[in-house]
From TrEMBL, chain A:
<feature type="region of interest" description="Disordered">
    <location>
        <begin position="152"/>
        <end position="204"/>
    </location>
</feature>
<protein>
    <recommendedName>
        <fullName>Two-component response regulator</fullName>
    </recommendedName>
</protein>
<keyword id="KW-0805">Transcription regulation</keyword>
<dbReference type="GO" id="GO:0000160">
    <property type="term" value="P:phosphorelay signal transduction system"/>
</dbReference>
<keyword id="KW-0010">Activator</keyword>
<dbReference type="InterPro" id="IPR009057">
    <property type="entry name" value="Homeodomain-like_sf"/>
</dbReference>
<comment type="function">
    <text>Transcriptional activator that binds specific DNA sequence.</text>
</comment>
<dbReference type="Pfam" id="PF00249">
    <property type="entry name" value="Myb_DNA-binding"/>
</dbReference>
<dbReference type="InterPro" id="IPR001789">
    <property type="entry name" value="Sig_transdc_resp-reg_receiver"/>
</dbReference>
Automatic annotation (TrEMBL), chain B:
<feature type="domain" description="HPt">
    <location>
        <begin position="33"/>
        <end position="130"/>
    </location>
</feature>
<dbReference type="GO" id="GO:0000160">
    <property type="term" value="P:phosphorelay signal transduction system"/>
</dbReference>
<dbReference type="Pfam" id="PF01627">
    <property type="entry name" value="Hpt"/>
</dbReference>
<dbReference type="GO" id="GO:0009736">
    <property type="term" value="P:cytokinin-activated signaling pathway"/>
</dbReference>
<dbReference type="InterPro" id="IPR008207">
    <property type="entry name" value="Sig_transdc_His_kin_Hpt_dom"/>
</dbReference>
<keyword id="KW-0932">Cytokinin signaling pathway</keyword>
<dbReference type="GO" id="GO:0043424">
    <property type="term" value="F:protein histidine kinase binding"/>
</dbReference>
<dbReference type="GO" id="GO:0009927">
    <property type="term" value="F:histidine phosphotransfer kinase activity"/>
</dbReference>
<keyword id="KW-0597">Phosphoprotein</keyword>
Length: 665, 130
């Protein structure tokens, strides 16, 4: 911890810190009275303030009634009235408290579940004193994280000079916590070195905000209004206009929300429609596996319908976007996709950014949104232009990309008009966590992990999960759609494909994105036809990139749109772009990931860097990604691409290889 | 007397009735809670009696609901491990294994054994706490 400056300002409220961690207020929830009593005694011996509770519902009530009454919660996994993981989720969303899970069950999948649901630790019963002695670190860590996040939100500027200093008292114990936890801070490490201390002790008086249903609803509305990619805490705060709510509160809630959406998107694949609160079972886990499988399957089948690709891409994208939480899954995805592009940069780069950056553009966007749905999403999402790749740009920053990409509304309109393409109007739903679900293709899983089109989505009936971009020709790229933002990362690609399919309905041939890039080739060919769409696609990609994080939300349709003024063309183009998207999806299985990654990374850049990772076949300009890529960028990238032909535009657009250029216009 | 107690405790450990966790409980005992261990053990027997009864009843049903049995046993196992009841805990594990493979007879036999261990430990601890 860099206690550079004497914790002068922070001294206030540090009174507690002097004794910290003594006095830590712990809530223990377990239906086993023996265990409960033992824990109570052990925690008491650690000088913590313990409150026992044998029922989950009662515990929630307690927490809700005492908003700032507890610092940390320890809960059993198996309880009769409510599943421990569900409780974990509730607490995380409503109160943002660190939660430790406990169980006699030490099997890997249960522990993994804890991780994916956001538990900050997992203890195996019988619990020993030593394990409990250090739980304070989670409290400190969280506080620090929140502070940091706050800072980050502020463009990385350290807001409060005072925060920096952690009371020296805390230094001792905080340091260990700090070191350990910088997961978020790591990302921002460079930006915020100085803010490390900011969090000073966990005892910092930070009034806990209880996110009631109404408050959360207001939050969601604000986020949707702004669009996932544009939803920065500051703006959300303004929109919400709730007295007493601070930006930090919003920032940390936003993070959770994204995580939640992400989880949802993973679910989407399995079945969309996850309610915001629904505990998603390892969305990530499943997502990853799904994506992996999808990709693999697709690859092998060689017929990966664009959808799947899109999904995958989306997944990758979304994954990428989700930086912290998704980083893990992304990694997996990466592997999956390591088809061609080993650089899943998205994941890495983007992740970091995701928090604030667009990265998650795609997240919000259900990748699999059928064009119709996309349209719906579209509304909520910012119109990328049509592409709302809004995959939840939770970070809000991603918004910029998305919006850029999709030239606002005009496109969508065009797209919409052009084809009934179902174009994934993802955007609409992007913002809303719930939206993603409906979009079949675009199911972007709320947070970025848009549903990559898990085959389920594609209303287009994509045979494979691959995003059938081609299908959707009609997809009006209206911004949304391209659910490319693969929702959960991997699968998101597919979702995207779906969107695209919608978009591409017109596109020639369903371009199923064969994973083996063949699809792309086809797409490319298609591209020629519609090439105009290509550009769109490219924009898409860029846009998608932002979401790429996992979500290759880049709905093909979006791709099509980029800047193509001609509506009609768009229709065509869409297909192309869709193809592209699909293509990218296809090629993207490997590429997508890359794209996603690239997107994600590019998102950070905000430029349409379409990393054409190298989907040579893909000529598709990574339309999948692009949410973030501003349209302009995309367009330029696309144009560039075009000239280059299927040359993976690597760096024009963050899309990997998905250059629209490649698509033969 | 103290020595007797110490010997008794030692033998409980040696014979595998109790494990490390029991020591943890003892370490928690202090002047403010001089009977902590006894309190916890009493709590354990009271609560687990209910579970044992549930399992008994479930074992009499036909066909056997293994997942429910497993769930009960998981809870029982958690309690046992909390107080360090080693032998009982290993019987729990055995039982769950039978459940996993769907061996109803195995479950029943294992449970009989478990109840025996359970009762034996209880008696010994009662003496110990006298």
């Amino acid at each position: 911890m860099s206690l550079t400056t004497p914790s002068a300002s922070w001294k206030s409220g540090d009174a507690v810190s002097d004794q910290f961690p003594a006095g830590l207020r712990v809530l223990v929830v377990d239906d086993d009275p023996t265990c409960l009593r033992i824990l109570e005694k052990m925690l008491g011996n650690c000088h913590y303030e313990v409150t026992k509770c044998s029922r989950a519902e009662a515990a929630l009530d307690l927490l809700r009634d005492n908003k700032d009454g507890f610092d940390i919660v320890i809960s059993d996994v198996h309880m009769p009235d409510m599943d421990g993981f569900k409780l974990l989720e509730h607490i995380g969303l409503e109160m943002d408290l660190p939660v430790i899970m406990m169980s006699a069950d030490d099997s890997k999948n249960v522990v993994m579940k804890g991780v994916t649901h956001g538990a900050c630790d997992y203890l195996i019963k019988p619990v020993r004193m030593e394990a409990l002695k250090n739980i304070w670190q989670h409290v400190v860590r969280k506080k620090k994280y929140e502070w940091k996040d706050k800072d980050l939100e502020q463009s990385g500027s350290v807001e409060d000079g005072e925060r920096q200093q952690k009371p020296s008292d805390d230094a001792d114990y905080s340091s260990s916590a700090n070191e350990g936890n910088w997961r978020s801070s790591k990302k921002r490490k460079d930006e915020e070195d100085e803010t490390e201390e900011r969090d000073d002790s966990s005892t910092l008086k930070k009034p806990r905000v209880v996110w009631s249903v109404e408050l959360h609803q207001q939050f969601v509305t604000a986020v949707n209004q702004l669009g996932i990619d544009k939803a920065v805490p500051k703006k959300i705060l303004e929109l919400m206009n709730v007295p007493g709510l601070t930006r930090e509160n919003v920032a940390s809630h936003l993070q959770k929300y994204r995580l939640y959406l992400r989880r949802l998107s993973g679910q989407h694949q399995n079945g969309l429609g996850n309610s915001f609160m629904s505990p998603q079972d390892p969305a990530f886990g499943s997502m990853s596996s799904l994506s992996g499988l999808d990709l693999q399957a697709l690859a092998s089948s060689g017929q990966i319908p664009p959808q799947s690709l899109a999904t995958i891409q989306a997944a990758a994208l979304s994954r990428a976007t989700n930086k912290s939480s998704i980083s893990v899954p992304l990694v997996d995805q990466r592997n999956l996709f390591s088809f061609d592009n080993p650089n899943i940069r998205f994941l890495d780069g983007q992740q970091q950014h995701n928090n604030g950056k667009q990265v998650n553009l795609l997240h919000g966007i259900p990748t699999n949104m059928d064009s119709k749905q996309l349209a719906a999403l579209h509304q909520s999402a910012q119109p990328f232009g049509n592409m709302h790749i809004n995959v939840h740009s939770q970070s809000g920053q991603s918004n910029s990309l998305l919006t850029q990409l999709v030239q606002p509304q005009s496109r969508t309109q065009m797209l919409n008009e052009v084809g009934s393409n179902q174009v994934l109007n993802l955007p609409a739903s992007v913002g809303q966590p719930g939206l993603s679900q409906p979009i079949p293709g675009a199911v972007f899983g709320r947070y970025g992990i848009d549903n990559v089109r898990a085959p389920t989505y594609n209303s287009l009936s994509q045979p494979s999960s691959v995003v059938d971009f081609s299908r959707s020709q009609g997809m009006e790229l209206p911004g949304n759609t391209i659910p490319l933002a693969s929702n959960s990362g991997i699968t998101t690609f597919t979702s995207k494909g779906m969107l695209q399919e919608d978009l591409n309905s017109e596109m020639k041939g369903s371009r199923s994105f064969l994973p083996s890039f063949d699809a792309f080739n086809e797409l490319n060919q298609n591209r020629t036809e519609d090439w105009s769409l290509q550009n769109v696609g490219s924009t898409f990609e860029t846009a998608q990139h932002s979401n790429v994080q996992g979500r290759l939300d880049v709905a093909p349709s979006v791709l099509v749109q980029p800047g193509f003024p001609s509506d009609q063309r768009n229709g065509h183009i869409r297909t192309t772009s869709v193809n592209k998207a699909a293509f990218s999806a296809a090629s993207g299985l490997g590429n997508i990931t890359n794209l996603g990654q690239q997107l994600t990374s590019s998102q950070a850049d905000n430029s349409l860097r379409i990393k054409s990772e190298r989907l040579p076949e893909m000529g598709f300009q990574n339309s999948i990604f692009p949410d973030q890529f501003g349209q302009e960028d995309l367009m330029s990238a696309l144009l560039k691409q075009q000239q280059e032909g299927i040359v993976p535009v690597e760096n024009d657009f963050a899309f990997d290889e998905y250059h629209l250029d490649n698509l033969p216009v | 007397m103290q020595r007797q107690l110490a010997n008794m405790k030692q033998s409980l450990f040696d014979q595998g009735y109790l494990d490390e966790q029991f020591v943890q409980l003892e370490e928690l005992q202090d002047d403010a809670n001089p009977n902590f261990v006894e309190e916890v053990v009493t709590l354990y027997y009271r609560d687990s009696a209910r579970l044992v009864q549930n399992i008994d009843q479930a074992l009499e049903k036909s066909p056997l609901d293994f997942s429910k049995l497993d769930s009960y046993m998981h809870q029982l196992k958690g309690s046992c491990s909390s107080i360090g009841a080693k032998k009982v805990k290993s019987e729990c594990t055995q039982f769950r294994e039978y459940c996993r493979v769907g061996n109803g007879d195995g479950c029943k036999r294992s449970f009989q054994q478990l109840k025996k261990e359970y009762a034996t430990l209880r008696k010994k601890l009662e003496v110990y706490f006298q």
